Amino acid sequence: MLTEQILLTEDGNWLRPSDNPIDAQLVFLFAASSIIESPLLLERIRTRYPRAHTVAVSAPDNIAGDGVLEKGGSTTALRFDTARIEVASEVLRGRDDSERTGEALGSKIPRDDLRHVIIFSEGIEVNGTALLRGIKNVLGASVSVTGGLASDGEAFKRTTVGLDEIPAPNRAVAVGLYGKSLSIGKGSIGGWIPFGEEMKITRSEGNVAYELGGRSALQVYRDVLGPKAFALPASGLLFPLGIQVPGGGDPLVRTLLSIDAASESVSFAGDVPQGYTARLMRADLDNLITAAESAASNAATTLGPPGAGASLVLVISCIGRKLVLQRRTDEEIRAARMAFGSSATFAGFYSYGEISPWNELEECQLHNQTMTITAISESVFPATG
To answer: What is the pTM of this model?
Structure first.
């Protein structure tokens, strides 16, 4: 497996592309919507990689090399030795259409020899939990899935995704990876600390919370944010909601996506089930960086076969983490890189939601405010299982 990564300037031009492009089957394009929606850039990618499918995801803050790119972006091309890919896209007609969209994507991904599925979706008008549920309805709960929701940074206005076309809002894309030569490692950890009172989710519908502990969800956030409440929804990223799943285990963390002043409701990136208990969460900077290191270590450990080195490390972290870490943002990328060494190509973005299992023993879920790692390697010695 070979990779070729080229950085993009903020006007969408390649920085120092080599004269000998690889014969790629797949290209990931991560950058702001203003860059990835350029017809000229898409044509350049097609010319350089004529056999490749291009998956474009909007994210003003993206990850390449050893750190974070706050301007520009990157293309990361992949050439597999014996593995193959299948791709699919679907139009998402609003949040209530999320589960159907997931089912439609799943139905387009053949099951035979499937090793892993990577999902990218519109980041605002989507219920990530329902999207993932739809995929699992078709492919089965045990299918290996990771991915993330597109981002618009702190703006929360417009996110775009595209497959072999100009990216647009309300799109979701799936990439199926096939072949026993592939090994996939996964890790996802948050590092946020619960605080304050435990609240029952007293009224909710899907990913919209109307009441927490008998009070309007919006008022709960206004109270904790104080003067920062005027900057909602962006300021709400500082205090995600941790939902306790019945039966124990780590809480599912939910990112605030939007507010509705008329209904006093708050919409999150994934389901907030009525009757569950929840607590607000806050950040400890060292905890967040340690969590990134642990997520990468878990992914490296589960990569296998023994000694396999990752060719691509797909890193999807939450925009809320970046807002909290600020000048220390690069530290979580460097901490993650320690698990893989200098030879692995790092690519990714700061998202509105992350898709991954916590570990190899659990099903994949939608998370928020986590560092999520997908490590991919291809070996001449096929993986078993």
So the answer is: 0.89
